Amino acid sequence: MEKRDIVQLLHRQNFRLTREREALLELLMRTEKMFTAAEWHALAQQQHVRVGLTTVYRLLEVLTKVGLATPFLVEGSVYYAFCAGQHHHHFVCLACHHVEDLYECPVFHHLPKGCQVHHHKVDLFGICPACQEQSEAGQVTPGPPM
Ligand SMILES: [Zn+2]
Ligand SMILES: [Zn+2]
Ligand SMILES: [Zn+2]
C-alpha cells in the first residue's frame, strides 16, 4: 500500500496528518520492530519528531482500526508494529522485538468441518537467528531495543 492511500485512510478516520504526524507515520512504516506506545514516543523524540504521547496513542489506535498496525501482547505490555499490504502472519523475536511478516497462511488446512471463518490471527513468538547466535556466543541478550 502506498503512502498516499494510507494518508487517505487516515483522513477518513478523521486523523489529519500534520508534518510532524507524517514524520511519525514514516518512522512507523520503515521500522520492522514492535514497540509500546511509550517506546515509539521515545524513538520519535530521538529522531526529532516532536509529537506528544497522546498523538502516538491515537495514531496507533487508528492504524490498528484500519488494519495497518498489529498489537502484540507480550508479558502484559501491548507492543505495536506497522503492517501494510496483503494478508500475513508474524514471527516476533522476543529478544530484539524484530517483527517478520510471513505471507504463507497455514490456517485453512486445519479448519473444523462446516465452520465459516471470518477472520483469524496467527502470530509466532520466539528467538530470531541473530539473537540465537548472540546468546550462543555468550553475549548478553539485548533488552527491548531503542
Ligand atoms: Zn504485519
Ligand atoms: Zn532477535
Ligand atoms: Zn492467514
From TrEMBL:
Q: Which domain of life is it from?
A: Bacteria
**Into which family does the record put it?**
Belongs to the Fur family.
The name under which this protein is listed is Fur family transcriptional regulator, zinc uptake regulator
- Listed binding positions for Zn(2+) are C93, C96, C128, C131
Q: Which taxonomic lineage does the organism of this UniProt entry have? A: Bacteria, Bacillati, Bacillota, Bacilli, Bacillales
Which Gene3D superfamilies does the record cross-reference, listed alphabetically? Answer: 3.30.1490.190, Winged helix-like DNA-binding domain superfamily/Winged helix DNA-binding domain
Query: Keywords for this entry?
Result: DNA-binding, Iron, Metal-binding, Repressor, Transcription, Transcription regulation, Zinc
Q: Which GO terms describe its biological process?
A: negative regulation of DNA-templated transcription; regulation of secondary metabolite biosynthetic process
Which residues does the annotation say bind Fe cation? H87, H120
Cofactor dependence is on: Zn(2+); Mn(2+); Fe(2+)
Q: Which InterPro entries match?
A: FUR (IPR002481), Fur_C (IPR043135), WH-like_DNA-bd_sf (IPR036388), WH_DNA-bd_sf (IPR036390)
Organism of this sequence:
Alicyclobacillus macrosporangiidus
User: How many cofactors are bound and how?
Assistant: Binds 1 zinc ion per subunit. Binds 1 Mn(2+) or Fe(2+) ion per subunit.
What molecular functions are annotated in GO for this chain?
DNA-binding transcription factor activity; transcription cis-regulatory region binding; zinc ion binding
